[in-house]
Design a protein that fits this description.
The chain is an all-alpha fold. It contains seven helices and no strands. The protein is flat. This is NADH-quinone oxidoreductase subunit J. InterPro entries: NADH_UbQ/plastoQ_OxRdtase_su6 (IPR001457), Nuo/plastoQ_OxRdtase_6_NuoJ (IPR042106).
Amino acid sequence: MFEIVAFYLFAFLTITMFSITIFTNNALYALSTLAAGMIFISAFFFLLDAQFLGAVQIVVYTGAVMALYAFGMMFFDSLSTVEEHIKNPRLVFLLSGIIALLIVIIFVSPVIGENVQANLPVHEQWGNTQDVGVVLFTKYLIPFEIAAIMLLVAMIGGIILAGKKMDLSYSELSEDEIENLEKEEL
C-alpha cells in the first residue's frame, strides 16, 4: 500500500514539475522546477530499492541542472526581470509545506516500519552498488569515459562563452545599446 501511494504522489509531483518547466516564461522557474523534477524521478529508484541509481540520479542529473541554473543566471541576467504576481502567498506556502511534509513521511515510513527485503538478484559477496560498479567499469568503461569527456568539453565551452561579456549587464543598458549588441553578435 505504501509503494502505491508513494508512486502516485511522486508521479503527480514529477509531471507537475515538468509541466511548469515547459509552460513557464521565466528561465529561473523553469530551471528550478527541472531540478525538482529530477529529484522526484530519483524517488522512483528509491522505491524500487535501487539506492545507487537514485543517488546517481540526484548527484549527476540534478547537479547538471544546477550547473545549467548557474549558467542561466549568468547569461540571461534574469534577476532584474522577475516580477512576482502570487495572488495568495499564504495558500502557496501552506500547500508547499503540506507537500514537503508528505514527502518526508513517505521517505521516513519504511525506516520506521518493517524492513522487508525484496528478493532482488544481488551477488552474495557484495551488494547491488558493487554490481553496478563492476559492470560500469568493465563492460561499459569506454562509453562512460566518452560521456565524461563530452561533459568536460561542454563545461569548458560554457565557461568560455560566459566569460566573453561578463562586464556587461543588460539591466544597465538602454534598449538601443542592447539592439546594437545583438546585431554585433549576429
